[in-house]
Design a protein that fits this description.
cell division; about 240 residues; Tol-Pal system protein TolQ; single chain
Length: about 240
């Protein structure tokens, strides 16, 4: 009779994700909701970063084409002035603004220290650009490292409740404990669902942004060399 009752309970149990959520303990529900929200936010960041990285590459390509087209630095400065400059263009504009300020004071004091100031300005701007590109990337790393453990916490809590149910019912039939174990394992599944994409895309975007950072550094070095030659010519 008890076996038939247990089988009837197992057949009535809803093993869909929604059903498991509705049957779960409140603590497990909180864990599931948190992991689901983390997964949704992770994908939102992923789509944003895809757009941001593609735009950064496109901006760098367009600027380098203009920079090496042969037009003067002054003309390029005037052309880029009204725009919302990013990537290499932002470094160029920051350096040119410092160059113009230095020219005004150099009439009286000479050009000593001009190149160092321009290099420092470009370094600061480069850090700002990388900070803008890397924004919210830490969230992906955090989700990737913590989501499995949060899901495991929900699983452990659910299994504890399953064992308590066994103690109350005094029935160890698998049909009795299966719904509780399924609820518990659903938390682990959600943890992995959030963590795996976060780790994959964190590694991808870290590599992409490292390449963009290297590209900005290369441009800063090239432009610093150009400024150095002009300063040597002015003697």
């Amino acid at each position: 009779m008890e076996v038939e009752l247990a089988q009837g309970v197992a057949q009535q149990a809803d093993y869909s994700m929604i059903g498991l959520f509705l049957q779960a303990h409140i603590v497990v529900k909180i864990v599931m909701i948190g992991l689901l929200l983390a997964s949704v936010w992770t994908w939102a960041i992923v789509f944003e970063k895809f757009t941001l990285v593609a735009r950064a590459r496109r901006d760098a390509d367009q600027f380098e084409q203009m920079f090496w087209s042969g037009q003067s630095l002054e003309d390029l400065y005037l052309t880029l002035g009204p725009r919302n400059n990013r990537s290499c263009a932002a470094l160029f504009m920051a350096a040119m603004r410092e160059w113009k300020r230095s020219q005004e004071s150099a009439v009286r004091s000479g050009f000593a220290g001009v190149q160092k100031r321009i290099e420092k300005v470009m370094e600061v701007q480069l850090q700002k650009e990388m900070a803008r590109l890397e924004r919210r990337l830490l969230f992906l790393a955090t989700v990737g490292s913590t989501a499995p453990f949060i899901g495991l916490f929900g699983t452990v809590w659910g299994i504890m409740n399953s064992f308590q149910a066994i103690a109350v019912s005094k029935n160890t039939n698998l049909a009795v404990v299966a719904p509780g174990i399924a609820e518990a394992l659903a938390a682990t599944a959600l943890g992995l669902l959030a963590a795996i994409p976060a780790v994959i895309f964190y590694n991808k975007f870290s590599t992409d942004l490292s390449r963009i950072g290297a590209r900005l550094e290369n441009f800063a070095d090239e432009f610093s060399a150009i400024i150095s030659r002009q300063l040597d010519e002015r003697g």
